[in-house]
Amino acid sequence: MASTLFRKFSRSMPVALLDNTYRSRSGSAGAGFRIPVGAIAAVSGGFSCLFYLSSSNLAYLDERSDIDGAKVALNPEKWLEFKLQDTARVSHNTQLFRFTFDPSAKLGLDIASCLLTRAQIGEDADGKKKYVIRPYTPISDPDAKGYFDLLIKLYPEGKMSQQFAKLKPGDVLEVKGPIEKLKYTPNMKKHIGMIAGGSGITPMLQIIDAILKNPEDNTQVSLIYGNVSPDDILLKQRLDMLEATHPNLKIFYTVDKPSKTWKGGSGYISKDMVLKGLPGPGDDTLILVCGPPGLMDHISGSKAKDWTQGELSGVLKDLGYTEQMVFKF
């Protein structure tokens, strides 16, 4: 029964993920080339890595509690096993994966944060086990008990996505977390602007959901979301529904390849789009940015090599925002 409902849910989900390129059409640095978005969908943004680890021990669900006393499933210090309950095909190369744990526990995901997944991919020359590790942002409610959902685009050459492709119900996935990105608190800013490209929408959606489900949070949210084409927009109907039912959320879509019936913006995210669609610089403003490297370079500059925020550059600096007003996922 649960599997049937899960598949019905996935078929009803308006999911079209960004393909493996994000094309720049701006006149600034990066114009005219094609940029790989990355090897994962539902990624929280910021990094991916390949780790070589010697320990093969797997930790199981510990008795941990959050600040409210509820049991939580995640552990930031240990790799834990989560069982795959079911999968459902969303598109020709995208699947939804539901993993389960103690039904009386919450996942324990902070806002805004991601989790790490790992899979063994062989051994190195010394016989030590070799793992691939990738960060993902669940698309399920962090307060849901007993399960979490990951939306994964299965790239043919994706080291981790192909590990997901091999999973069958009953198999387990190793997970660690949460990995905190931005420590969000209700009403921390009067107005939050967001710029996302492709799968960079996932941490934005996490924050949007947290704001909109909290009646005490009066934060105004403005989102500019760029993709290749209208069909590539991730979870558009879900976003549209949230905008239609919450006056404090405004969304502007722009695509590189508009269809004849497209009514949103066209082209790369520009200074004019930011001026019209996001709050201006100020102490009560925070701009969040997440997307492929070309978008980050164009809008805010990339993060530093040590994964700190790095210097602000690009469109946001040109428009007068400061490093204190911008956060890069």
Keywords summarizing the entry:
7-stranded antiparallel β-sheet, alpha/beta, 329 residues, Rossmann fold, Elongation Factor Tu (Ef-tu), domain 3, single chain, 6-stranded parallel β-sheet
Question: What do you see in this structure?
Answer:
With 329 residues, the chain is an alpha/beta fold. The chain has two domains: 2-26 and 35-180, Beta Barrel (Elongation Factor Tu (Ef-tu), domain 3), CATH 2.40.30; 191-328, 3-Layer(aba) Sandwich (Rossmann fold). 18% of the residues lie in helices and 30% in strands. It contains seven helices and 17 strands. The strands form four sheets. The chain has a seven-stranded antiparallel beta sheet. Strands 15-14-13-12-16-17 form a six-stranded parallel beta sheet, with helices on both faces. It is globular.
